[in-house]
Amino acid sequence: MRILVAEDDERLGAVLVRGLREQGYVPDLVPDGETAASYLSFYQYAVAIVDWRMPKLSGLDLVARMRREGSVVPVLMLTARDTPADRIAGLDAGADDYLVKPFDFGELLARLRALQRRPAAARPPALALGELELDLATRQVRFGDRQPALTGTELGILELLLRRSPGVADRRMIAVHVWDDEADAFGSNTIDVHLARLRSKLAGAGVRIETVRGIGYRIVAA
Amino acid sequence: MRILVAEDDERLGAVLVRGLREQGYVPDLVPDGETAASYLSFYQYAVAIVDWRMPKLSGLDLVARMRREGSVVPVLMLTARDTPADRIAGLDAGADDYLVKPFDFGELLARLRALQRRPAAARPPALALGELELDLATRQVRFGDRQPALTGTELGILELLLRRSPGVADRRMIAVHVWDDEADAFGSNTIDVHLARLRSKLAGAGVRIETVRGIGYRIVAA
DNA sequence: CGCGCCCGTCATGATTTCTTCACGAGGGCT
DNA sequence: AGCCCTCGTGAAGAAATCATGACGGGCGCG
Question: Measured in angstroms, what separates residue B193's CA from nucleotide D12's C1'?
Fold first, then answer.
């Protein structure tokens, strides 16, 4: 059972590695987020234990990046902080569980086992592009610290655009996916209007919705 | 997010549709394999939920046929049976996941999300010649570090030329390909004008559009 | 029942793209 | 060489397409 341990505190790292090894795990210890990222992309781990505060790339950013790249490896986040906001931020970024230092090693083991049991697929997927992130489970978008409220239609269109990106979503495609009935909204400029609204709400996210004249739209990182 | 639900049990079908709709999906319910097949070939779905046992065409056969026809729509198979042999048969036929009845609706949702997260389907390959590259999915051309914007008509003509290359595309062919009505743009010099624009926009790509006097055009590596 | 939110439609203005036109430059054939 | 036809190209008008602000209806909620 291979485990990645991303922890910059040497002493804590050593303790973790020794303890895990005794339990029959095979831990790899890395000292910073960048290294963790490259290990994760290269090897296959059953679980990753990630410190929140790390050099080069924080645990939060690391997890967000993993998820953006489609990794489904369960992540247990370690942190010294514990406010509801922290917790939400961690879980939102894509961590699966959360442990506050100092922690009991037995509890760490218990959570590890829980993580392995839990199907990784149970976590809501997120589509992301640029600064923009769309959480399909909660149907919310985020970018920077803003979190604009999108209506159902806008969300549907944005979702389609993100899925096709950088490909083009043509008008028929949009109509079919967003409106049950395809025939609607085809002779009218309904789609255009929604696109305009979407654009204005997404101003400032690192994305640009380009119009492809005569065809449809495409979303790309700005 | 459009989903196909192929389920002959009316009660279960209704439950699925209602539940999915509440989650923001747009489900289409069909009662048998044949209908499912025709829906699948006509509309674009993000995922298909397919019952194993269905009238006319079983889920297994349906999936096998979809895959044979090149469909890459992720399939979640529902079944009452659960032996290793069944599981293998289902996955072998091309299903992506597998759920045994009776199942928890939450788990169904989780698996749906997991399926949607799968890497996007293979995109149509790009056409290329010399330095020039035409990506039909994004409707963009590239050569070197440039990326000129082509209009729809120009793109259509270029696509045809590239597909024919090094053969000749005659004027009728171009007219038919770009304007589905051939009669137009035949007595006029419209085609010539577009060709001129195409040439100027592609200056510097390693290609040359040759005129075949009295016939049409041909594109070749310069 | 009033209110707010969301959606579809309309009207208008701006922009891009298409087509036509005019004229000049070869090509090829006699 | 002379002639006819095809093609190249710049410019300009015409047409298509899109952006956007505003409006009214419908629906859910208090």
Answer: 14
